[in-house]
Design goal:
heterodimer; A: 327 residues; mainly alpha; MetI-like fold; 16 helices; 0% strand; flat; B: 271 residues; 13 helices; 76% helix
Chain lengths: 327, 271
């Protein structure tokens, strides 16, 4: 392209005129003032969320803490005051015969859920990472269980696992296995809610691990293949180690989400029979809302134990994430 | 190579079929006659099917569906209004203490809903907000707002700084920049956040049951729950309601699939 000198100089002077007239080089004082005013603007945009967080996060949490440190009864709600009880509620909760089973069930439910969700999700991610006809469509369909309302999934699984008329037992019967009382036998109820929860969590793991795979350079794998590494070796020696940061995040998020699970267990077994599938979240709900005589103080105390566990793991998560960012 | 790809598709279809079997079963049961419900072995396809379940839905569940739509829309509006400006600020205006705020938002997502429900219950009892739709919208928004801010921040930090600078040079204040420049180019983020906020509000059961359990306007999750709770043996009606309650999820998957995947990933992996 060829431009005449006259054209170029005209363009340059026009640019100089525009920039020069509208914006002289800012002095240091002016720049400081601009920065200060932009701080005001920055916080102005954040203010609504900040107020929201204080009113609708911090305050309910504070009320929850307050509940757990007093002895609230139905009467205290009417009168508005409840005697201060200190840590007595926490002591009672820990001494309660439900505490140990609930803690143990929470641990089993969380770890078994995550182990299966992650292993299956990763295997599927590796499978779908290869391009074949329909791979994108099928991968999208895998999202369905994750998008369904939990209540819908839980009700469906309840009926599928029904002792007499459930499809799962008919299938087992066809294989020559006797009736399993999935939801009504104390030895199977935890397994039943685990199956449903693993099913719901697979898509989340699949999507994240798939995005992790996408970030691995194909050159590395190609180089390994040229060097004679088989598929199995390529996965364990290259793909899996390179996925470690994404895996850490997936596992920790899974942990925090699984600790909170309530809907599935409540719909399928209500934590029963007895305490066989009661987790801390379920127990907290039972104490606070499960009967006509709510014990809000104990419920809040159980809830706060759950928060402490979640926060400890959240801090681990954030440390892992920061380390990831700095590398 | 060709033949191997064909096998992969076959395996993929098989895996998807196994994974989606419960969804198929829900639809199948929703079409089964009550008389055939206890049949052994059950009908694998809805031969001799019935639409009785859906008739029941049409007669009993429409108000619940309406409430759920209202709660979903309200939650989306509240979430967008709060989260978009905050995301803009965190991404482009470099507020002092912004890092601490992001940290708080991350932690906020990890608080179990049962604990929030208890706190809200005590507060709403005082304020008389129990069993109201507005109270439910507020509570449901707590699931979506922290996520929304983080998504908006992630999306908006990808907008080139030159765009914001150009607006500033042209004399636009932050407010004008936000509405005239940032919001129009952040359409993807708006869609992603709205989608998740709606879906979470639509699916919420815990807040609905604790804060709106005795309300005159109840969402669809409570509609299904009351069916199950009544020890109702009309499983075709229960499953028909479940199918109808799953429609938004299905629509979103078809209409906005790439936004769904983007939301899942952006929520977990910072880029």
């Amino acid at each position: 392209m060829k431009t005449t000198t006259a054209e170029r100089s005209r363009a340059r002077s026009a640019a100089r005129h525009r920039d020069g007239a509208a914006k002289p080089a800012p002095s240091r004082a002016l720049r400081a003032r601009l920065r200060r005013s932009s701080q005001w603007a920055a916080w102005g945009f954040i203010a609504p969320v900040l107020i929201y967080l204080v009113l609708f996060y911090a305050y309910p949490l504070y009320r929850n803490l307050d509940l757990s440190l007093r002895s609230y009864t139905v009467a205290s709600f009417v009168s508005g005051d409840a005697p201060f009880a200190g840590l007595a509620n926490y002591e009672n909760v820990i001494k309660n015969p439900t505490f140990l089973p609930a803690l143990l069930n929470t641990a089993i439910f969380t770890f078994v859920s995550i182990a299966f969700q992650f292993a299956i999700g990763l295997a599927l991610a590796v499978f779908f990472y290869r391009t074949f006809r329909l791979s994108a469509t099928l991968r999208a369909l895998f999202l369905v269980p994750w998008l369904l309302p939990l209540l819908v999934s839980a009700s469906t699984w309840s009926w599928m696992l029904n002792s007499d008329s459930g499809i799962v037992n008919s299938f087992l019967h066809a294989l020559g296995i006797g009736q399993v009382d999935w939801l009504t036998s104390p030895s199977w109820s935890l397994a039943a809610v685990l199956i449903a929860n693993i099913w719901i969590g697979i898509p989340f793991n699949l999507v994240i691990m798939y995005s992790g795979l996408q970030s691995i350079s194909p050159d590395v794998l190609e180089a390994a293949a040229i060097d004679g590494a088989g598929g199995w070796q390529r996965f364990w020696r290259i793909t899996f180690p390179l996925l470690r940061p994404v895996s850490a995040i997936t596992l920790l998020l899974g942990f925090v989400y699984t600790l909170k699970v309530f809907d599935i267990i409540w719909i399928m077994t209500r934590g029963g029979p007895a305490t066989s599938s009661t987790t801390l979240a379920i127990w907290s709900y039972q104490l606070g809302f499960g009967s006509l005589l709510p014990d809000f103080s104990s419920a809040a105390a159980v809830g706060n134990v759950l928060i402490i566990i979640a926060v400890v793991f959240a801090l681990v998560y954030i440390r892992a994430r920061n380390r990831l960012e700095s590398t | 190579m060709r033949r191997r790809a064909w096998w992969l598709t076959a395996i993929g279809v098989l895996l998807t079929a196994v994974m989606l079997f419960p969804v198929y079963w829900m639809i199948n049961v929703s079409l089964t006659k009550t008389a055939n419900m206890r049949k052994s072995p059950p009908n694998l396809i809805p031969v001799d099917g019935t639409l009785a379940g859906y008739t029941v839905v049409l007669h009993q569940q429409l108000p619940y569906l309406g409430t759920s739509l209202l709660v979903g829309a309200g939650t989306v509006a509240l979430t967008l209004v709060l989260a978009a400006p905050a995301g803009f600020s965190l991404a482009k205006l470099h507020p002092r203490g912004g890092g601490a705020l992001s940290f708080v938002l991350l932690i906020a997502q990890m608080i179990p809903a049962i604990i929030m429900a208890m706190g809200f219950y005590v507060i709403y009892l005082r304020l008389g907000l129990l069993n109201s739709v507005w109270g439910l919208i507020l509570a449901d928004s707590t699931i979506a707002v922290p996520f929304g801010v983080l998504i908006f921040t992630a999306f908006m930090s990808r907008i080139p700084d030159e765009l914001v600078q150009a607006a500033t040079i042209d004399g636009a204040g932050p407010l004008r920049t936000f509405f005239a420049i940032i919001v129009p180019v952040s359409r993807n983020a708006v869609v992603t956040v709205s989608l998740f906020a709606f879906l979470w509000a639509w699916s919420d059961f815990l807040f609905a049951n604790t804060l709106d359990g005795g309300g005159s306007m109840q969402p669809i999750t409570l509609g299904i729950y009351s069916y199950i709770g009544n020890n109702n043996q009309q499983w075709n009606a229960i499953m028909a309601t479940a199918v109808v309650a799953s429609v938004p999820a299905a629509v979103l998957l078809v209409v906005a699939q790439r936004y769904v995947a983007a939301g899942v990933t952006a929520g977990a992996v910072k880029d």
